[in-house]
Amino acid sequence: MNSQNFSLSEKLVSCSYVRQGLQARRGHEQLVRVLLQQGKCPEEGWSESTVELFLNELAVMDSNNFLGNCGVGEREGRVASGLVARRHYRLIHGIGRSGDIAAVQPKAAGSSLLNKITNSVVLDVLRFTGVRSVSSCFVVPMATGMSLTLCFLTLRHRRPGARYILWPRIDQKSCFKSMLTAGFEPVVIENVLEGDELRTNLEEVERKIEELGAENFLCVHSTTSCFAPRVPDRLEELAVLCAKHDIPHIVNNAYGMQSSKCMHLIQQGARVGRIDAFVQSLDKNFMVPVGGAIIAGFDESFITEISKMYPGRASASPSLDVLITLLTLGANGYKKLLAERKELSALAERHGERLLHTPHNPISLAMSLTRLQTHSAAAVTQLGSMLFTRQVSGARVVPLGVEQTVSGHTFRGFMSHTDAYPCPYLNAASAIGITRDDITLCIKRLDKCLKSLSKEAPAEKIHAIYSFILILLDTFSS
C-alpha cells in the first residue's frame, strides 16, 4: 500500500480510519528506513510483523516473484513446493554470482539487498561486541571448518610456495581437517601446562618458524574459544610474531563472539601485531541453525579477496536466519543475552580447589575427576554416558589415554588438547542462551547419576561433583 492507494481507500472506508492505518504503516517504514540509512543493528528489536513485512518487500524485488515474469534460463528461482517457497520467504535466487559471493544479482535485487544489509548489520555487531577496528566481513553459507579452508585457499595465491600451517593444538577435528582440505601440512604445536591451564608454547612456535623458514608457512592458525582446561591462545604475542616474520595470521573464533575477552584478544592482536582474518560460527553465537559463518578482518581488500574465492552462487538461508534474529533481538536484546551468559563464567573466582584453575578461559570450566579415576577408570566414562542417556548434552567427560587418528595424524590424549594431561575431568560451557532452567534440570538428572555412582565412588568425590554443579546454580542466583 502506497500513499495513492491509501487515498483511494478513503472512498471505501472512513478517512480517519484509513489515516490511522497509514500512520501504522509509516511506523514500520520508518524502522526500515533507519536500517537502510545506517546499516546497523537496531537498538530495539522489531516485531515479527515488521520483519515479515520487510522480507516480503524484498521478495517482490526478485524476478521470480514478478507478475507476468517469463523465465527461460536454467536458474529462474523455480520452486516445486509452496512450503519450501514460504520457508524461504520466496527469496529463492540465493546470494552472489558465479565470480563473487558478495556480488549483486541483476535478477534478484531483493536477495542482493538482503545480503548487503546482513553483512552490514553483522559488521556492526562485531564492533559493539569488542572488535571495534574490524573493517569488513561477510556471511558465508558454510560452517567454521570450511570457512577456515576458504581463508587458507585464498592465502595460497599470495604465498604459492608455502607448505605448512603452524597450529597450536586444539582437539577439534574440523579445525585440523580445514588445513588438510586446503592441501597444507599442519605443524602441531603442543600446548604447555601452566598450573591447570594449557597455554600456547610461544618458544616452540618461534623455534619452528626458524627451523622450517617463515617463507614456507602459509599462516599461523590460532584459536580463541575452547574447552577448559585449554585456554585461548596468546593472540597478542602470536600477532607480534606474525608481524615480525611476515606470516599471515588466521584466527578460529568459533564461538568467541559471545565472550568479551575473546573479542578483546582479537582487537588487541590486530593493534599490536598481525591478524588477517578471524572466523566465527553463526549457530554458536546467534542461536540459528547450523550452516553459516562470518569471515571478518581488518583489511577490506583481503576480505573481498576471500569472498571472490567462493565458487558460484550461495544459499541465502544463513544470511536470512541471522538477519531475522538480529532484527528481532535488536542490539539491546543481543547484549542482554551476552550479559546473562557472562554471569556463568563469573564463578571462576569462587571455585576453590575442586575446580581446575583456568581463569584465562571465559567460556568453559572444568573439574578434576582424579579420585573417580583412582577408584575405577570405567566410572569416568560411565558418568559421561549416564549424563548423555539422560539427555544432558554439552557436559563433557574427558578420560585419560584416548588416542584418535584424524586424517593419518594420531593425537594422544585426544579431547584434552595435550598428550598427557595430569587428570581426567568434567567440563561445561556457559554458552549464549543458557538459562537457570537448564542448570536446574541438569542438577536433577545429574543427581540420578550420582546416586547410582555413589555405590562405587568415594563419598568425597561425589561431594566434589555436587559442589561443581551447585556453583553453576549459585551463579544464576547471584
TrEMBL record:
Keyword RNA-binding: yes
Cofactor dependence: pyridoxal 5'-phosphate
Residues annotated for substrate binding in this entry: R97, S98, Q105, R313
N6-(pyridoxal phosphate)lysine: residues bearing it: K284
One annotated GO molecular function: O-phosphoseryl-tRNA(Sec) selenium transferase activity
Enzyme class: transferase
Catalytic activity from the UniProt record: O-phospho-L-seryl-tRNA(Sec) + selenophosphate + H2O = L-selenocysteinyl-tRNA(Sec) + 2 phosphate
Binding-site list for pyridoxal 5'-phosphate: R75
Primary location class: cytoplasm
Binding site for tRNA: R271, R390, K455
Key words, A-Z: Cytoplasm, Protein biosynthesis, Pyridoxal phosphate, RNA-binding, Selenium, Transferase, tRNA-binding
Cross-referenced SUPFAM superfamilies: PLP-dependent transferases (SSF53383)
Keyword NAD attached: no
An individual GO BP term: conversion of seryl-tRNAsec to selenocys-tRNAsec
InterPro entries associated with the record: PyrdxlP-dep_Trfase (IPR015424), PyrdxlP-dep_Trfase_major (IPR015421), Sec-tRNA_Se_transferase (IPR019872), SepSecS/SepCysS (IPR008829)
Cellular component GO terms held in the UniProt record: cytoplasm
Intracellular or extracellular location(s): Cytoplasm
Site location (May act as a substrate filter by repelling compounds with a negatively charged alpha-carboxylate): E74
EC annotation from Swiss-Prot or TrEMBL: 2.9.1.2
Metabolic or biological pathway: Aminoacyl-tRNA biosynthesis; selenocysteinyl-tRNA(Sec) biosynthesis; selenocysteinyl-tRNA(Sec) from L-seryl-tRNA(Sec) (archaeal/eukaryal route): step 2/2
Subunit structure: Homotetramer formed by a catalytic dimer and a non-catalytic dimer serving as a binding platform that orients tRNASec for catalysis. Each tetramer binds the CCA ends of two tRNAs which point to the active sites of the catalytic dimer.
Family: Belongs to the SepSecS family.
Protein's name according to its UniProt entry: O-phosphoseryl-tRNA(Sec) selenium transferase
